[in-house]
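Q: I'm writing up a methods section and want to include an example of the input and output format. Could you take the sequence below and give the corresponding predicted structure tokens, formatted cleanly so I can copy it straight into the document?
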Amino acid sequence: MIGRALKRVEDPRFLTGGAQYVGDMSLSGMLHAAFLRSPHAHARILRVDLSAALAFPGVVLCVAGDEIARRVKPVRAASRMQGYTATDFPPMALRKVRYVGEAVAAVVAENRYLAEDAVERIIVEYEPLPSVRDPEAAMESGS
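A: Here is the clean output for your methods example:
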């Protein structure tokens, strides 16, 4: 297959509007989740206030990293590579964010738009910390 032209069989449904995406699905009783993500590359999470999001109409649940950590085990990235140290990754940030876009909180609501609107009502206080952008500098002691 490498270097050969392949006939694309999926194009007609995409080009004619016949494709179905996950966002097009609607099931009875279906709920939607939206995530609040960190604007910081590295910061302490001082406070997460979910109260305004919880009070928003159509919201079923709001959670931050500490609540998720009590309910869900962290993901463990295992490898047989020599010298590799397996690391646990929590599903959402706990006490600190480590990259821009890390999930800090989640809202579950009756529809996507309510979930996204409620996420905007979550208040998070961060204490920005220094970040290292150079991979070689990140390997230095104390980085």
